[in-house]
């Protein structure tokens, strides 16, 4: 029998640990000059260094060091005056040298924290996630295992290797264990990754595109009985590539662990792979027998010893912290708390801000993104940023409504058209013929037709029964295919029938 | 012509007595005549060498300014990658591989107009002291073809002694330039670590490997040293400082007032009598030339060999992991449903020789969790102690000296099955690599008991390489006066030569 989440949290306390891998957006790779552009033809962005050719040597990309220090500073870490690269030795075909250059016992940044806020039924709650380390490493190539049932190397007929990704600079941000989140563990995990992503984006050090793999999260979860001291056995879930999945993965693992523990079974320490379609994880590599990576200091590189003055310069260059920015925007736009939380939850802050910067009224901009556009996004199961509509489109639509060229109803059709790929707002307006009928003689003609069709209704209105106007206005709107401004129609109709325009529709 | 020094060959080209093409052809002819017996070369690039030579000749005749070694032929150790030229590092696993790029050393040689004749034989991945560990058969010492030419760079030194090339490139991880130089009666220099770029040098032990010049005279070595040395942005461990003025030092050969420290621990028990006597005579000659001879003690050198055989195998176990049949080199067992893992295993089983496997296993073990501190960690501490010994010794001497090797060249096969005896051959050369300083070996005579060359080692502090050249040139000049002609004029003629 499947446990409910409530059953789980009634008995167990979850403990989180999050490892986030970030691909830096440097132009060149970590240890050579090859391009880091995404999506190139396989093996076109390689050289003797990132292919691990005999004799080739790595040289550290200074920009990557700078980005790592910026990340450390933004996460309140200490920057090590002296750090080193090590070799992590293991054989795998997508790793050209059969060792990965990584930082091991001497990472570049240590001991930081990130405060995250989540919106709960008990109000806004704040959690401090402590950061253990931030370290640099190189990415591996990509393997495509062809044939076989599992898509894994075992059982595949053959494998294709693309080394374009090999050597792309990665930064790994590792939290200390995060206890005390209680039932909010899934939300805290999601909020941590979201806020971390916002910080990384504000620093400009990564594209932070989870769907492209430039930000990847491994979620470690363990359970212990409430009140227990000792930590439970953890599982490490990989392949979690959206914010929503972070939350689902943590929740799913909590339930899976609790089911095992309740049955008196033990949790196996292992890597698990998140399945986007089911929201469940499947077993990966067992970590019961710790693999021996035979780490030792990378002899081909000299230690990283950033100058203190440089670090201070970087500290001064840090952009506005996302939490401060959020507070500032909330105030500037006068957004109530709940709605601010909704905006953050929908991951709409950036896109709304962009729309506002293009001249749109903040409330209107927020209304469109969180209203109609979010609705369409939810229906199609994608994030709003993935839709074809841009802040520029929305800003134009808001402007057209303000000018009276579009009614709200028409504007919704424009939004729908833009999302459907019919072109810019203007193109949708032109092709669908969505112009407000503002020609008064055309409106008057339509009103005359409505009165002729429903003479009794007109008579009632003449006799002072104003509510009857609705039926005639509806007829006019239908006649004009919804392209008239209903308020204006009402005005004209009542004046025509000699009645005051007293009650708003 | 081919018995002249590189410097003399260059002068002859400047005077128009010979062209680079003719000079190159003479050496190619010599290789054809004698290399079947010596087996110094794994690959001879006849067409490429002649094309390079013609290009230098054309440049020279059009009045272009060319470097001091332009047009002079050179033999390249097969551990150095050269674009398009088969490069094996003496291993079967790289059979047929043609690198897609030039090492920095090769780029510099090409820019300087040095003509690369081909690739020389070596112990597989530079692991060995006799060149017997080459997957392509041993090289023979031109002084006595039944003897080893030293290693790992036996091919480079033998090519010089056999007059197949006047210059060669070697690499030295624990003595692979100096020991072959010693046993073949030639000059070999291991520059300060970081003095010559390692980019394109197939790594054995990254923290110890260093490429350097091999020649028949101290001046030739200095000329070649200046061509290949200097900072390289492709090597993070390359030193960003001006190249020491080695040519100037080699030309002056002035040792007046210099303090020469004899390392007490690198002379005595275990050193062949003839090696010791030639070494002592050389010290007297240096004293006569105006140097002051002092004794220094380096007590931690005793542990150098043991520490070396932890650090070098540890690094090699990682460096050689890339040879997995996936991207280059041979591929074994890729049939039917063979997995990538089994192809990797079979390829490494077939592709690596015994000594390489021995060191990979040793290094893998030394780096394993639970053993790391006791082995790799302790070895690194010994390394620090050796550096401290050197620092102390250099406080009382400008250079340190010792015999390069305990013995003269041994017989092929004599130590092939006794790795420890083989390792002991490098006892005097290893401390230099452990400390990252410079070392030179030059011939100081023949041992009376076997008539084979003896090497004299000079060690200088980091980035003070010029001191070795001053002392080396002074000793070379004094010995030449004593002998009347270069030591190599006494080498027995090889069959097939004139």
UniProtKB/TrEMBL annotation, chain A:
MF-aspect GO terms: ATP binding; glutaminyl-tRNA synthase (glutamine-hydrolyzing) activity
Name of the protein in question: Unannotated protein
Biological processes annotated in GO: glutaminyl-tRNAGln biosynthesis via transamidation; translation
Organism: freshwater metagenome
Family the entry assigns: Belongs to the GatB/GatE family. GatB subfamily.
Alphabetized PANTHER family for the sequence: GLUTAMYL-TRNA GLN AMIDOTRANSFERASE SUBUNIT B MITOCHONDRIAL AND PROKARYOTIC PET112-RELATED (PTHR11659), GLUTAMYL-TRNA(GLN) AMIDOTRANSFERASE SUBUNIT B, MITOCHONDRIAL (PTHR11659:SF0)
Cross-referenced HAMAP family: GatB (MF_00121)
Keywords annotated in UniProt: ATP-binding, Ligase, Nucleotide-binding, Protein biosynthesis
UniProtKB/TrEMBL annotation, chain B:
Record-listed E.C. numbers: 6.3.5.7
Keywords assigned by UniProt, alphabetized: ATP-binding, Ligase, Nucleotide-binding, Protein biosynthesis
Catalytic reaction(s) noted: L-glutamyl-tRNA(Gln) + L-glutamine + ATP + H2O = L-glutaminyl-tRNA(Gln) + L-glutamate + ADP + phosphate + H(+)
GO molecular function, one term: glutaminyl-tRNA synthase (glutamine-hydrolyzing) activity
Top class in the EC scheme: ligase
Amidase domain mapped to chain residues: 23-467
UniProt keyword ATP-binding present: yes
One Pfam match: Amidase
Family per similarity comment: Belongs to the amidase family. GatA subfamily.
Protein name (record): glutaminyl-tRNA synthase (glutamine-hydrolyzing)
């Amino acid at each position: 029998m499947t446990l409910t989440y409530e059953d789980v949290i009634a008995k167990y306390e979850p403990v989180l640990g999050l490892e986030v891998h970030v691909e830096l957006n440097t132009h060149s790779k970590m240890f050579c000059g090859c391009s880091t552009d995404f999506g190139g033809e396989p093996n076109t962005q390689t050289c003797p260094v990132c292919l691990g050719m005999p004799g080739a040597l790595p040289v550290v990309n200074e920009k990557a060091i700078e980005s790592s220090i910026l990340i450390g500073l933004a996460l309140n870490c200490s920057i090590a005056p002296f750090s080193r690269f090590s070799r992590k030795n293991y054989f795998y075909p997508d790793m050209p040298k059969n060792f990965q250059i990584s930082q091991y016992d001497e990472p570049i940044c240590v001991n930081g924290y990130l405060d995250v806020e989540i919106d709960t039924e008990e109000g806004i709650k704040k959690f401090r996630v402590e950061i253990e380390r931030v370290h640099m490493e190189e990415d591996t190539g990509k393997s495509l295992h062809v044939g076989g049932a599992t898509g894994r190397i075992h059982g595949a007929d053959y494998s294709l290797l693309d080394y374009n990704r090999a050597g792309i600079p990665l930064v790994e941000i590792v939290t200390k264990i995060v206890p005390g989140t209680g039932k909010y563990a899934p939300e805290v995990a999601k909020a941590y990754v979201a806020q971390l992503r916002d910080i990384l984006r504000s620093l400009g050090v990564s594209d932070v595109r989870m769907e492209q793999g430039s930000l990847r999260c491994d979620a470690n979860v363990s359970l212990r009985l409430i009140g227990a001291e000792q930590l439970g056995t953890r599982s490490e879930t990989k392949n979690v590539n959206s914010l929503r999945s972070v939350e689902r993965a943590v929740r799913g693992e909590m339930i899976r662990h609790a089911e095992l523990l309740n049955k008196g079974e033990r949790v196996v320490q292992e890597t698990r792979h998140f399945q986007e379609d089911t929201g469940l994880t499947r077993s990966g590599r067992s970590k019961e027998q710790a693999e021996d990576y035979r780490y030792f200091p990378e002899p081909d590189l000299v230690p990283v010893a950033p100058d203190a003055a440089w670090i201070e310069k970087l500290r001064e260059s840090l952009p506005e912290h996302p939490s401060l920015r959020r507070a500032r925007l909330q105030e500037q736009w006068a957004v109530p708390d709940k709605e601010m939380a909704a905006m953050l939850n929908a991951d709409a802050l950036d896109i709304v801000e962009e729309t506002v910067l293009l001249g749109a009224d903040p409330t209107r901009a927020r209304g469109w993104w969180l209203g109609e556009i979010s609705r369409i996004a939810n229906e199609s199961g994608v994030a709003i940023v993935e839709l074809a509509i841009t802040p520029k489109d929305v800003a134009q639509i808001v402007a057209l409504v303000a000018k009276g060229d579009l009614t709200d109803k028409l504007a919704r059709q424009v939004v729908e058209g833009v999302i459907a790929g019919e072109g810019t707002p203007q193109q949708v307006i032109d092709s669908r013929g969505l112009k407000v009928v503002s020609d008064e003689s055309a409106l008057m003609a339509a009103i005359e037709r409505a009165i002729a069709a429903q003479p009794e209704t007109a008579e009632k209105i003449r006799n002072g029964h104003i509510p009857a106007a609705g039926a005639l206005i509806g007829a006019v709107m239908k006649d004009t295919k919804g392209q008239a401004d209903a308020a204006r129609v009402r005005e004209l109709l009542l004046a025509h029938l000699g009645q005051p325009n007293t009650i708003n529709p | 012509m081919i018995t002249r020094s590189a410097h003399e060959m260059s002068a002859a080209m400047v005077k128009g007595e010979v062209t680079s093409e003719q000079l190159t052809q003479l050496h190619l002819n010599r290789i054809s005549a004698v290399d079947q017996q010596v087996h110094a070369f794994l690959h001879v690039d006849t067409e490429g060498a002649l094309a390079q030579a013609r290009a230098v000749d054309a440049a020279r005749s059009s009045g272009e300014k060319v470097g001091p070694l332009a047009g002079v032929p050179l033999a390249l150790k097969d551990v150095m990658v050269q674009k398009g030229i088969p490069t094996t590092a003496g291993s079967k696993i790289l059979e047929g591989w043609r690198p897609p790029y030039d090492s920095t050393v090769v780029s510099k040689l090409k820019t300087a107009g040095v003509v690369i004749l081909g690739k020389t034989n070596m112990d597989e991945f530079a692991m060995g002291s006799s060149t017997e560990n080459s997957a392509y058969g041993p090289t023979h010492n031109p002084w006595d073809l039944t003897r080893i030419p030293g290693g790992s760079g036996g091919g480079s030194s033998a090519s010089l002694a056999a007059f197949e090339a006047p210059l060669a490139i070697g690499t030295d991880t624990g003595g692979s330039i100096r020991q072959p130089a010693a046993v073949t009666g030639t000059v070999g220099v291991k520059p300060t670590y970081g003095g010559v770029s390692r980019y394109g040098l197939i790594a054995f032990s990254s923290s110890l490997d260093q490429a350097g010049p091999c020649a028949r005279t101290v001046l030739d070595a200095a000329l070649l040293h200046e061509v290949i040395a200097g900072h390289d942005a492709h090597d993070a461990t390359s030193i960003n400082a001006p190249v020491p003025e080695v040519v100037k030092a080699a030309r002056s050969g002035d040792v007046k007032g210099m303090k020469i420290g004899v390392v007490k621990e690198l002379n005595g028990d275990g050193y062949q009598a003839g090696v010791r006597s030639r070494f002592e005579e050389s010290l007297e000659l240096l004293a006569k030339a105006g140097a002051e001879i002092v004794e220094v003690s380096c007590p931690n050198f005793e542990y150098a060999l043991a520490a070396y055989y932890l650090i070098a195998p540890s690094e090699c176990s990682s460096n050689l992991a890339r040879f997995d049949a996936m991207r280059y080199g041979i591929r074994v067992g890729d049939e039917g449903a063979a997995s990538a893992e089994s192809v990797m295993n079979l390829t490494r089983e077939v592709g690596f020789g015994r000594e390489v496997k021995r060191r990979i296993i040793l290094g893998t073990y030394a780096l394993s969790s639970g053993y790391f501190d006791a082995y790799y960690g302790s070895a690194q501490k010994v390394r620090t102690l050796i550096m401290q010994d050197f620092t102390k010794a250099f406080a009382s001497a400008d250079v340190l000296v010792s015999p390069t090797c305990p013995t003269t060249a041994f017989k092929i096969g004599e130590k092939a099955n006794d790795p420890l005896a083989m390792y002991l051959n490098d006892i005097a050369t290893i401390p230099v690599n452990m400390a990252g300083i410079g070392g030179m070996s030059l011939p100081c005579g023949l041992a009376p008991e076997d008539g084979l060359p003896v090497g004299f080692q000079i060690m200088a502090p980091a980035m003070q390489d010029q001191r070795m050249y001053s002392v080396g040139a002074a000793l070379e000049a004094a010995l030449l006066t004593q002998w009347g002609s270069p030591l190599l004029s006494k080498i027995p003629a090889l069959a097939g030569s004139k």
